[in-house]
Amino acid sequence: MNVSDADSPEPGSHAAQPPRLPLIWIGYLLGLATIAAEFVAVTLHPELAKEGGIPPLYLFLASFVGGVYWLVCIYQVHVVLAHVPGWTHPISPARAVGFHFIPFYQFYWIFKWPREIANFVNVRLHQPIMKPVAVGVAVLVALILRILDPGFGLILLFFPMSYVSECLRRAFAAPTIQSGSLPPASSSSSSSSSSSSSS
User: Percent of the chain beyond pLDDT 70?
Assistant: First the structure.
């Protein structure tokens, strides 16, 4: 009797704990660490600022880890959306990350996945709160700046991620009603159902 009582709350507790959104502040710390590594590298090797060349290993690792964590954040965001009850997210976490490595297609992809996230956020909040085009432009600018300055570009890369995370928090904090849990493909029907429910 005690065993069944002890076992019964466990599945409910697992179901009541959805995946969490990523910790964006870690990305900012990695960006600051990359900037610090840049200053150290230029101080120890002044020729890097004038002639360029192969960066030191610690600078490469700081920038590389920051870029990897940015992809981890994208993966985690899509994991969270994949576990939203009643919502069918069209992009899997693996695709969300993997399609960034397809040459040329990646320039389209950095606009595609924010649009699908905005679809969920705006349907859930019943108003166009999230602007996906702005997210894509910010990511594109940050990726270009990252070539010129890895640390500064990395910090800018996490600004749109902070915006996406905040929009998702607002969407999850909104009261869950039936019209807000429709799949993205039926956005037009969701607006009509929301208007009928309000009336």
Answer: 75
pLDDT digits (tens, 9 = 90+) for 143-175: 999 988 889 999 999 999 999 999 999 999 887
Determine whether 172 is exposed, middle or buried from the number of CB atoms within 10 Å of its CB (0-12, 13-18, 19+): middle
Phi, psi (rounded to 5 degrees) for 126: 60, 30
- Which residue is associated with the tokens 């994208």? 74
Q: Which residues are within 8 A (CB) of 169 and not within 5 positions of it... i.e. 6 or more apart?
A: 21
Higher pLDDT, 46 or 34: 34
CB atoms within 10 A of CB 194: 17
Measured N-to-C along each axis, helices 150-173 and 132-148 cross at an angle, to the nearest 10 degrees, of: 160
Is the CB of residue 184 less than 8 Å from the CB of residue 169? no
Q: 105-125 and 57-82 are packed helices; what angle lies between their axes, rounded to 10 degrees?
A: 40
Burial class (CB in 10 A: 0-12, 13-18, 19+), 139: buried
